[in-house]
Model the fold of this input.
Amino acid sequence: MEELKESLVFKGVAERLTLGITRILENMPGVADVRFAEREPAEKRSLLSWEQKNTCILPEDLRDFYLTTDGFTLTWSVKLDNECVPLGCMMINSVARLCPLLQPVALFSLPNAPSLVDLDWEESNTESGTGRAPAAPHFDSRSRIFELDSCGGNGKVCLVYKNCTSGVVAQQSEIWFLDRSLCWHFLTATFTSYYRLMITHLGLPEWQYAFTPYGPSPQAKQWASLYQPLIFGTELSFADPAGDSYLNKLDPTKAFRGKAKVPVLKKKQSTQGSSGSAAKNQGGTGKHSGAKR
Done:
């Protein structure tokens, strides 16, 4: 009886954690093998140890998440030719795997060996940023970057602390996506917003690339058109090179304006022709008037 109670309690917690997405997936055509990994809550001492080790304060919503479950993994597959093919994956690393993206330089590495720090140059990465997105993180000591999700090798979703100072505890964080070309793309300002975004996109392959100028691959778009047609059909690109969003490209003043009728130009008749026709008209008028009399 107690085991049944515990299972029901955990089922309710899992339902709240997944926002009911497991039931939605199970009712989709072709979806099979929906799995949600059960995990115990993280201990408070492990969170405090992480903060002391990395000189960063975890955001409150992420802290509450880890105190509920130490990480998150939900996977689902599709049936193709009577075989289950893994497709969707939603993942948040545990506290133990919330590791820095920039590992310290090895003792035996070459002194002039290239590193990610070499990708930072003032012309492309400035602290001023743009009007459409915050300033991109840096690969040097100015930013502290921790991996939340490896995205199956298609990039990395990271918890980023910017404008850091050595020896000072960092408090403000954001969620960014680092693509395979090592370019940064802003996702959300809070972990809660990112979590909802991940659930909404069902963990489809390369869904994070919807927030890049180039978007997901053609194969990923095909999967998205099957399982998320509304989201991926109207997805905005927040880094349009032209500076405009892809939505509302239609100009109402031009689209709903009636077509103006082009006036037909009448050919001007010659003076002689016009005078001759006038005389005929007068003569005809006279005959008619005489006949009436």
Q: What stands out?
A: The two ends are 121 Å apart (CA to CA).
